[in-house]
Structure to design on (82 residues):
């Protein structure tokens, strides 16, 4: 449990707090969209997925083992005049 809690970052805690806020808002005022949004925010924080995760939103640009220049040189594009 200590190892799990040590991986929590400030943005992840902020996301959990926002999720809790929306769930509190649902409890006080109702509204299904608020419940869904708060649930999604909390689930992302607890499961460490989404843009606030340690991996972030971006994906790797190049496949493993290749550099960007070799991929650029492999692609040949033919253009046709319309």
């Amino acid at each position: 449990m200590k190892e799990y809690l040590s991986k929590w970052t400030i943005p992840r805690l902020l996301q959990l707090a926002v999720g809790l806020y929306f769930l509190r808002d649902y409890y006080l005022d109702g509204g299904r969209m608020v419940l869904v949004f708060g649930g999604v925010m909390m689930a992302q924080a607890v499961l460490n997925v989404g843009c606030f995760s340690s991996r972030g939103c971006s994906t790797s640009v190049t496949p493993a083992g290749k550099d960007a220049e070799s991929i650029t040189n492999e692609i040949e594009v033919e253009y046709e005049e319309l």
